[in-house]
From TrEMBL:
It catalyses: ATP + protein L-histidine = ADP + protein N-phospho-L-histidine. InterPro entries: HATPase_C_sf, HATPase_dom, His_kinase_dom, Sig_transdc_His_kin-like_C. Its EC number is 2.7.13.3. Gene3D superfamilies: 1.10.287.130, Histidine kinase-like ATPase, C-terminal domain. Pfam families: HATPase_c. This is histidine kinase. Keywords: Kinase, Membrane, Transferase, Transmembrane, Transmembrane helix. It is an enzyme of class 2 (transferase). GO terms for molecular function: protein histidine kinase activity. The chain crosses the membrane at residues 29-50, 62-81, 93-112, 118-134, 141-162. It comes from Bradyrhizobium ivorense. The keyword Transmembrane helix applies. SUPFAM superfamilies: ATPase domain of HSP90 chaperone/DNA topoisomerase II/histidine kinase (SSF55874). Residues 238-470 form the Histidine kinase domain.
Length: 470
């Protein structure tokens, strides 16, 4: 039987899926089902009024049968569904609620003087109510049909002789009603199962999409972190290169001073010391100390500047700062690194623009765009100009335009430049994450917008618009 129902689409092979469907189909709207059951209680007992109209002499008996069934069976079953523990037995309660009045009804026709003349319409009314108002599945409805038909046959066996053909007509009408109700309930359950499958598939697809989205966000976060580490590595390399020159000069000068000091010591240990030799040695030591101090001071300033840049790029806190002065300070600190690649930075920013935003994220964006211009806009290594122009088109927003006059971006790549791993310099070791990270920081961290416009051999323009208060 289970195999047949499965092939007909009236049962799921998966037991867990079947249980979830039954819970939703049978117990999904208990409240509304109870309203229908109360209506059934009133209707079943109310047919005693018809008995009184036609046969007042037997109304007390029929009212006892109908009213007793409604009062002592149907109504308690309806109220029982309000108990939380009984809801797990809802399908059984529905079946008993249907079978009992359907089996009791034929006994009423044994009492009525008309006998079974109107038995078929009465049974059809019960079948109609059961098949339309209650969430019975086709299996439970089949049990109801079989039980009530047996009860009808038994009651007819105790009845006086029926008119010729009446038994055949009654059973024909009732069995026809059974067939129609079984088809209607089966069709309704089949549609409900298909809708359930569709809803489950949509739910699973939604969960997969949400999981993919979470994974994408995690990947983007990892990419941002990787780009920060790459920028930090580039900064460290720049520090090593820039600081090595003054430190090397200081080391060379200190070595020369050590030699001069030993020469003076040997001279002083001699028998005769000329004033001119002594003054010359002291002068060389003084010059050496001056050169050493200047180079060490220069190295100290570089280390401090690079440290500030690193702090800005790692800063994730929101601060209030004046944009013009902050930009000048950032460009001054990045200058030694950019000058190595021949890039000249030109900043145009009105004074007095105050931002409450994330300076670390903004520093990451501008430095990435600058290094990207140095690497891609001027690939010949001769360098060029990188212009940063700031304007405030409205009081609540700031527009920062970063532009170069380099070779531009090919037209077929302009729609994909913000995608991850898109680069024109893969042969030079670039992996294509710089502009992708810039896009993510502008949109996610700075809550802004970013646009790109580029023409071959005419340069590239990147416009960033961010709110004044983030």
């Amino acid at each position: 039987m289970h195999g047949l129902l499965t092939r007909l689409g009236l049962r799921f092979e998966d037991v867990v899926e079947e249980r979830r469907f039954v819970d939703q189909y049978v117990r999904g709207n208990i409240g509304w089902t109870q309203v229908a059951m109360l209506l059934g209680v009133l209707t079943y007992a109310g047919y005693a009024f018809w008995d009184w109209v036609l046969y007042p002499e037997v109304v007390s008996t029929t009212l006892a049968i109908r009213g007793g069934t409604a009062l002592f069976v149907l109504l308690p079953l309806t109220l029982l569904l309000s108990v939380p523990a009984a809801k797990s037995w809802a399908e059984t309660i529905f079946l008993v609620y249907c079978v009992v009045p359907g089996c009791v009804l034929p006994s009423v026709y044994l009492v009525l003087p008309s006998g079974f003349t109107y038995a078929a319409p009465g049974m059809i009314m019960v079948i109609l109510f059961v098949s339309t108002m209650l969430p019975l599945r086709v299996g439970s409805l089949a049990v109801f049909c079989f039980a009530t038909w047996i009860a009808l046959c038994i009651a007819e066996s105790f009845a006086p002789a029926l008119p010729a053909g009446l038994r055949f007509i009654n059973h024909s009408l009732v069995c026809n009603a059974y067939a129609l109700s079984l088809y209607a309930v089966a069709a309704r359950e089949f549609r409900a199962r298909r809708q359930f499958r569709t809803a489950e598939a949509l739910k699973q697809e939604k969960e997969r999409s949400e999981a993919s989205l979470r994974e994408l966000h995690a990947t983007q976060s990892h990419l941002v972190q990787a780009e920060k580490l790459a920028s930090l590595g580039q900064l460290v390399a720049g520090v090593a290169h820039e600081v090595s020159t003054p430190l090397g000069l200081a080391l060379t000068t200190s070595t020369a001073m050590e030699t001069d000091l030993r020469t003076i010591a040997r001279t002083l240990n001699g028998t005769a010391v000329r004033r001119s030799d002594l003054m010359k040695g002291i002068g060389r030591l003084g010059e050496g100390l001056r050169i050493t101090f200047e180079n060490l001071h220069r190295a100290s300033e570089m280390v401090h500047s690079f440290k500030q840049v690193a702090i800005h790029q790692a800063d994730e806190e929101s601060h209030t700062f004046e944009l013009g002065g902050w930009l000048s300070e950032l460009v001054a600190k990045l200058g030694p690194l950019l000058s190595r690649q021949g890039l000249i930075v030109d900043v145009t920013c009105p004074q007095g623009i105050i931002l409450n935003s994330y300076p670390g994220a903004l520093a990451q964006v501008i430095s990435n765009l600058a290094f990207n211009a140095a690497a891609h806009a001027y690939p010949d290594g001769k360098g060029g100009v990188f212009m940063v122009t700031v304007s405030q088109p409205e009081p609540t927003a700031v527009r920062i335009v970063c532009a170069d006059r380099g070779i531009g971006i090919p037209s077929d790549m302009q729609g994909r430049v913000f995608d991850p791993f898109v680069t024109t310099g893969r042969e030079r070791g670039n992996i294509g994450l710089g502009l992708h990270v810039v896009f993510n920081i502008v949109v996610s961290s700075l809550s802004g917008r970013i646009e790109l416009d580029s023409k071959p051999n005419c340069g590239t323009l990147v416009a960033i618009e961010i709110p004044v208060s983030g």
